[in-house]
Amino acid sequence: MTSNTGGASSRLNYADKVMLAPMVRIGTLPARLLALDYGADVVYCEELIDHSMLQCQRVENELLDTIDFIKEQAHHPVFRTCAKERDRVVFQMGTADPERALKVAKLVENDVAGIDVNMGCPKEYSTKGGMGAALLSNPEKIKQILTTLVNGVSIPVTCKIRILPKLEDTLSLVQLIESTGVAAVAVHGRYKEERPRHPVHADVIKAISQAVSIPVIANGGSGVINRYEDLQRFREDTGASSVMVARAAQWNFSIFRPEGMLPVDDVIRDYLRYAVDYDNVALNSKYVLQQILQAEQQSPRGQKLLATQALREMCALWDMADYYDEVQVRRQAKQEELERKKGLSRYEPRLVDGIYTMHVEYIRKEYPSAVSPKTILLNWSRTEYLPQPTYETVKQGSDTKFNSVVTVGDKRYASSFWHKAKKLAEQAAASVCLRTLGLHDGKLQAYITEAKDDGKRHVEAHGKSPSVESPQRKKCRTEEADVAKMDDNEDGSEGQISQSKVHTDVETSQMKDVQQTLKADHRVTKHGDGDGVRGGKCHGTDS
Ligand SMILES: Cc1cc2nc3c(=O)[nH]c(=O)nc-3n(C[C@H](O)[C@H](O)[C@H](O)COP(=O)(O)O)c2cc1C
Q: Is the CB–ligand 1 distance for residue 248 below 6 Å?
């Protein structure tokens, strides 16, 4: 089969390929990159539902060098991709509507190599919305969706189907699919009602391969695929152009290695490296590791894995805690570098008409749900025995923008950014105050890209580095991100613990953690004259 060359962007060709099949929860970025490293030519992401994607914004994550599609208020992206897979990743969506499908396809078009529509998922959560296998009995809808996509995007479009009870119906369906202009069709050789334990119908895939001229991607053979050579055999048995595997890869991603499969422990270490590099959600990583371990989950190490919550703990089980720590240090340094590049002057507080002013936009999703600059500032004022901060807000012009000034003690603080709502403007003012005082405003670490140089100088002068996150806070942040991903998960499959209580506990603990940080900072600040900072400079006593 073809070799992995990566490199320059070219239209994805689906002929003569081995592929990683779409798998909910498994097919996130680390697994896809690993499959590519081992020899897969093309990798599909997990199915992502159109409604969910349409709530996402595209964000270039400079810290991780990724493109993230992230929902407002969420702490972890619904879809993360990167340049390394740009030319070989296929974005699979669940949809029942041509217009929604097109909007999603346009959203990701420049970051992926192809678009696929899932027409094979037999699960109720998919079919009851008219998606997945429900589409198989609605050829008109299939035609509309595929035609709209083919005409609407510049990258290849495909779909993944199951077979129908009658061969002639299956053949008519694939011919209709071919007529829409798709680049290929993936066929899971099972009927809608059949489960993975049922033998795959290689003969039906073969008949399909003979009935159309676009590449057919044979799928469903994991039960008979135990090593690399079996991929080739399955391809011959089905007469297909390409082969796509799900479970065989889930058990051991090195199934794609022409040189032979690697021991599971090696695969796990390679997986963890990517999980760490791309800050993959811990619970997602854990789920993937559990699938790789299979029966070994009962082993002492499998039991220890079950008890882990954070990625570092998982790394420690495979002697990779040092790697995790090294990456965190490198990431911290990169973050500081980005901060320096971005905004030294923008975030230097200036005294404008007696008001400490910075250009700060408050974006709600960048803060944990239980934490906001206003609540932090209120708590801080209480511990300082200062009166409650007061906010004065003004409205501007016909486009109705708001700007707030917060008064704390005898000082006033404001952002020069005009917000769309009063409450956002107040949060921004509170954030400016906290930053000017050298205090953490609660923003999630992942979003901190602007300079906090003023605060840093203030605290460093007292021998305390604010930029190093406490292990406790880091753990809380990781857990919260995991929880958010679980909330976002489209799979809905069993085997996961209930998350709602964890969420509450994490938020409470995170709030406490922020407050502890504030108390520590406050003690530092009190060494000075109760203000400690003028225009970003420290005037407190040396300690
Ligand atoms: C854990 C898991 C998740 C899956 N998620 C998806 C999915 O998101 N989209 C999809 O089209 N098929 C999904 N499938 C089905 C597989 O892509 C594939 O069609 C099926 O497992 C048969 O291939 P195999 O014999 O190689 O496992 C999933 C299968 C598994 C095991």
A: yes
How is residue 393 written in tokens? Answer: 């807000």
Q: How many residues appear in the chain?
A: 543
Residue 81 tokens, joined: 């991709």
Determine the distance separating the centroid of ligand 1 and the alpha carbon of 105, expressed in angstroms: 21
User: Which phi and psi angles does 42 have, rounded to 5°?
Assistant: -135, 140
Q: Quickly tell me which residue has 């509309």 as its tokens.
A: 144
Phi, psi for residue 407 in degrees, rounded to 5: -110, 125
Interval between CA 52 and ligand 1 midpoint (Å):
20
Which atom number of ligand 1 is nearest to the Cα of residue 160?
11
The H-assigned helical ranges of 450-526 are: 453-460, 471-488, 500-526
Atom 1 of ligand 1: nearest residue by CA position: 23
Alpha-carbon gap, residue 161 to 137, rounded angstroms: 11
Report the nearest atom of ligand 1 relative to the CA of 200.
Answer: 25
Q: Determine the residue type at 433.
A: C
Which pTM value belongs to this model?
0.69
- Ligand 1 contacts CB of residue 219 (under 6 A): yes
Which of the residues are catalytic?
121
Ligand 1 contacts CB of residue 190 (under 6 A): no
Q: Which of 192, 227, 247, 292 to mutate to test the pocket of ligand 1 (most atoms within 8 A of CB)?
A: 247
Residues 6+ apart with CB under 8 A from 157: 105, 114, 115, 116, 117, 146, 149, 150, 181, 182, 183
Whose CA is closest to atom 19 on ligand 1? Answer: 188
Ligand 1 atom nearest 118 alpha carbon? 11
One digit per residue, the tens of pLDDT, for the chain of length 543 reads 544 433 345 899 999 999 999 999 999 999 999 999 999 999 999 999 999 999 999 999 999 999 999 998 677 999 999 999 999 999 999 999 999 999 999 999 999 999 999 999 999 989 999 999 999 999 999 999 999 999 999 999 999 999 999 999 999 999 999 999 999 999 999 999 999 999 999 999 999 999 999 999 999 999 999 999 999 999 999 999 999 999 999 999 999 999 999 999 999 999 999 999 999 999 999 999 999 999 888 899 999 999 999 999 999 999 999 999 999 999 988 887 887 777 644 467 888 888 998 888 899 888 888 889 999 999 999 999 999 999 999 987 666 889 999 999 999 999 988 899 999 999 999 999 999 988 889 988 767 654 443 333 332 222 223 333 333 334 434 433 433 333 333 232 322 222 322 232 333 333 344 344 434 433 333 322 222 222 222 222 222
Beta-carbon neighbour count of residue 313 at 10 Å?
17
Domains of the chain: 18-260 (3.20.20.70), 346-543 (3.30.160.20)
**Ligand 1 close to Cβ of residue 21 (< 6 A):** yes
- The residue whose C-alpha atom lies closest to atom 18 belonging to ligand 1 is 246
- Is 76 touching ligand 1 by the criterion CB < 6 Å? no
CA of 218 to the centre of ligand 1 (A): 12
28 lines ligand 1 (CB under 6 A): no
